[in-house]
Amino acid sequence: MSLASRRVARLAAFSLRRSAHASTSARYNSVNADDIAHFSKFLPTSTILSTLPPQSLPSSELSPFNDDWMNKYHGQSTTVVRPRNALEVSEVVKRCNERGIAIVPQGGNTGLVGGGVPIKDELLINLGNMNKVRSFDPVSGILVADAGCVLESLSEYLAPHNHIMPLDLGAKGSCQIGGNVSTNAGGLRLLRYGSLHGSVLGLEVVLPDGTILDQLSTLRKDNTGYDLKQLFIGAEGTLGIVTGVSILTAPAPQSASNVILALPKFENVLPLFVQAKRQLSEILSAFEFFDREVYDLAIKHGQGRALSEEDVEGAECFVLMETSGGKREHDEEKLNQLLETLFESDKPLINTGVLSQSPAQFASMWAIREGLTEAVSKEGKAYKYDISVPLAKFKEVVDTTREHLGSKGLLRDDAVKHVVGYGHVGDGNLHLNVVAAAYTPEIEAALEPFVYELVASYKGSVSAEHGIGVMKTHALHYSKSNVSIEWMKRIKQLFDPKGIMNPGKVLP
Ligand code: FAD
Ligand code: MLT
Ligand code: ZN
User: Fold this and answer.
1) Angle between helix 394-407 and helix 450-457 axes, rounded to 10 deg
2) Which residue has the CA at smallest separation from atom 8 of ligand 2?
3) Which of 25, 101, 161, 343 is the most buried (most CB within 10 A)?
4) What's the gap in Å between 428 CA and the centre of ligand 2?
């Protein structure tokens, strides 16, 4: 094919994509004043926010709902409704289904792939007013809660009952359990408690026609045919709106410690992980990795207390390891033995280690790790890739991406400022972050499909935990076969034949 005809072919593909998008938006009706009047029949005025009459709010009042956490994706919704229970959600959805209005379900709006904000002017259904614990059984540890409960508030609720949530993440102060379920959030405790596909026991979901699917089971075991709830875990609001969650919580550990280990080179991370698993076995509860450059950003932007100069000198990367268990003396003895082995070895895997000595130090050390996301976004505009690749390749992925951007002449203060890596070693999940001065088409074109092809070359996943959202619909095929995507489309069609539920997300 000649250069000219190749360019024509590419242009044709581009305009096809554009017109597909245009026809998608033409399929839906916008919310109008009649819809607002209809919603007002069963929703209090305080739970409807709209730039349409009679409220005529300035659009800035809707910005917290239209703009995503990174300020990368921007919707143009005119209206946000904040129902208080599943019946109200159902009534809103019924109206949208009848009128062909597209819907975006929204939790705490902390998602990192643009899934929780509209693409155009879809109706936003925000779950924040559904924030009550429905029941808790201290014997089984099973908690049933409204989907809009904030993760941290659920942890606070459980504390006096000596239980903890089976997941924890840096966004805990804002993200909601319904959002966590809908993104199948991983986070910092997955190594110990596994994924939400295991700990979620039941869901209540409003389907795209308004039907309430009550699968809010509190049974640990239930083998009665297809396990429908699994479809909604990680569906990112494309199949229905989660309104209630039944989840197995864990007994609170009686003792917990953490230690930050400074490593001279990345290659030591894996042998360290193997050794930690061997010596700590059941008390190892987190094993998180972050490179030196992102550690420096965390400290620069005030996340946690800096380690001493001595402790960071010569460190290429760090590991934050947490132990938790049932008996302080036993756990401390095991951890101390591990540290002794590490320090006394002929070929030490670590330079130094800082062991927390108080609850305040424990929290401050976690604050460094949990604050990486915030630090990166304070430093600039982050292109975030949350990928699964073999553990041994974490550094190679970061270095190859940095070299690639360098070869394009983009490693400059006014373009790409940092290429950093951190992640959940125990889960094989690397967070590759490219921190730029601004989001630009040039940087995006240099990164994509480059990063996705790199991930595919390792047979990895383009999304280990944040999901597909709007960011990666075009990249789904790097990690899913055509047959899988075809069956995902069939499932979507079955649940949502009108395609009103979070259009333009997940599926290409
Ligand atoms: P939103 O952002 O509001 O929505 C996310 C998606 O779920 C959207 O597609 C939305 O339509 C859908 N959705 C939300 N609520 C519902 C519902 N009730 N029913 C149906 N669909 C719904 N993720 C991890 O996996 N691990 C981490 O360690 C982690 N750390 C983070 C740290 C920070 C600082 C930030 C900002 C984000 C982090 N995330 C992490 C991203 C993560 O996906 C979210 O924080 C969280 O799970 C999303 O919950 P949310 O309530 O904010 O959902
Ligand atoms: C994390 O592990 O910190 C989160 O997934 C958020 C991020 O990737 O920045
Ligand atoms: Zn993560």
Assistant:
1) 150
2) 431
3) 101
4) 13
Q: Is the CB of residue 97 below 6 angstroms from any atom belonging to ligand 2? A: no
Question: What is the location of CATH 3.30.70.2190 in the chain?
Answer: 255-372
DSSP states of 100-128 = TB-EEEESSS--SSSTTS-SSSPEEEE-T
Is any atom of ligand 2 closer than 6 Å to the C-beta of 373? yes
Q: Residue 112 contacts by C-beta under 8 Å, 6 or more apart in sequence?
A: 68, 69, 70, 373, 384, 386, 466, 469
Place of tokens 């690397």: 430
The CATH number of 255-372, from 2.60.40.10, 3.30.56.10, 1.20.1260.10, 3.30.70.2190, is: 3.30.70.2190
Task: Give the pLDDT of the chain (508 residues) as one tens digit per residue.
Answer: 333 333 333 333 333 333 334 344 568 999 999 999 999 999 999 999 999 999 999 999 999 999 999 999 999 999 999 999 999 999 999 999 999 999 999 999 999 999 999 999 999 999 999 999 999 999 999 999 999 999 999 999 999 999 999 999 999 999 999 999 999 999 999 999 999 999 999 999 999 999 999 999 999 999 999 999 999 999 999 999 999 999 999 999 999 999 999 999 999 999 999 999 999 999 999 999 999 999 999 999 999 999 999 999 999 999 999 999 999 999 999 999 999 999 999 999 999 999 999 999 999 999 999 999 999 999 999 999 999 999 999 999 999 999 999 999 999 999 999 999 999 998 999 999 999 999 999 999 999 999 999 999 999 999 999 999 999 999 999 999 999 999 999 999 999 999 999 999 999 9
Distance 422 CA to ligand 3 centre (A): 8
The CA-atom distances, in angstroms, between 132 and each of 154, 309, 472 are 9, 46, 33
Closest atom of ligand 2 relative to the 373 alpha carbon: 9
Are the CB atoms for 125 and 104 separated by under 8 Å? yes
SS3 219: coil
The whole model's pTM is what? 0.95
Nearest CA to ligand 2 atom 9: 373
Ligand 2: distance of its center to the CA of 71 in Å?
A: 16
Give the ligand whose atoms come closest to the C-alpha of residue 245: 1
From the DSSP assignment, how many helices (H) and strands (E) are in the chain?
Answer: 19, 18
> What atom of ligand 1 comes closest to residue 467's alpha carbon?
43
